[in-house]
């Protein structure tokens, strides 16, 4: 692995690229490559210098690279990657220099990117989603009292998405504290916020095994369940919170070999499976977990009834699969259709129009 360049080496390379840039007119693809290179080198320099000027210039160059019209020879940069790099730079500036407006624009770009078939463009969806969570958290930390409810919900929703994808969420401690702050100011009927906080605590509990995280998450989930009395409008929220509580109890039982923990996990799972409102896919997953718990109970205590239940649940799973339409339990989603580039072009037009109103030489704060 090559060693990291020094600031002096980065400065020398920046000067070299700036000289090369003068050799090519704007319509030339080499001109665009130079602009993109300057953006990346300025961002790399910022990592050493922590100077806002480097980050400002990086954002300016990324924006310019996006604005440049497609060259006459048809070659072009990966514009989706450019959007992600611009969003990442805006996110870095918002966190480092307490600029919530930058986070707002980063959120918009990252939401836009999440709608794309990112694998086609070499950008990892999990990285985009994690960046979105971080961007949504910035204004909450900087000015929680005035942060809009919609953005808080968007943050919690993004966390829920990561949870269901089975992805890693970083930085976890920062997100947890952010959601704790949001919970203090949001209306009590916004169940998605405590659910999002519970998810982050469940994830951290699975890593640290701290009982405090377990207790806090379970209290949040129990409160959501209790605040949603039976009824068609709230049944989904109840099931979601109950499923998370069941998952949390099962996780604790797998970490700590305590008979009481195992019995609680089994009790919660049985109660949830008794609901008639479960989807086939959720029922299948819960039944599989119940079979594992019953088998664990038999292995630990040698109870015949536990072995019988394990066999019954296994048989029940087979029945669910055979009676469901083909593809119901597939884990891999169908490939997305190619994203229309007209949407990308529209974003560029919006950026071009707004950047034209910014005086030359001022830091770029992109508005779309």
Describe the structure.
- With 368 residues, this protein is mainly α.
- The C terminus is likely disordered.
- Helix 9 runs parallel beside helix 11 and helix 11 packs antiparallel against helix 12.
- Helix content is 71%, strand content 0%.
- It folds into three domains: 77 residues; 114 residues; 97 residues, no CATH class.
- The chain has 15 helices and no strands.
- It is elongated, with a radius of gyration of 25 Å.
Number of strands: 0
* Secondary structure category: mainly alpha
Helix proportion range: over 70%
Basic shape? elongated
Instruction: Compute the number of helices.
Output: 15
Low-confidence stretches: 326-341, 354-368
Largest sheet: none
Span between termini: 40 Å
Mean of pLDDT: 77
Order of helices and strands: HHHHHHHHHHHHHHH
Number of domains: 3
What percentage of amino acids are in beta strands?
Answer: under 5%
C-alpha Rg (nearest Å): 25 Å
Gist of the model:
The chain is an all-alpha fold. Helix content is 71%, strand content 0%.
Question: What is the fold's blueprint, element by element?
Answer:
Layout: H1 7-21, H2 29-49, H3 52-67, H4 79-96, H5 100-114, H6 125-142, H7 149-165, H8 172-185, H9 192-208, H10 211-226, H11 235-255, H12 259-273, H13 280-301, H14 304-323, H15 341-355
Helix pairs in contact: 1-2, 2-3, 3-4, 4-5, 4-6, 5-6, 6-7, 6-8, 7-9, 8-9, 9-10, 9-11, 10-11, 11-12, 12-13, 13-14
What structural keywords apply?
single chain, 368 residues, mainly alpha, 71% helix, elongated
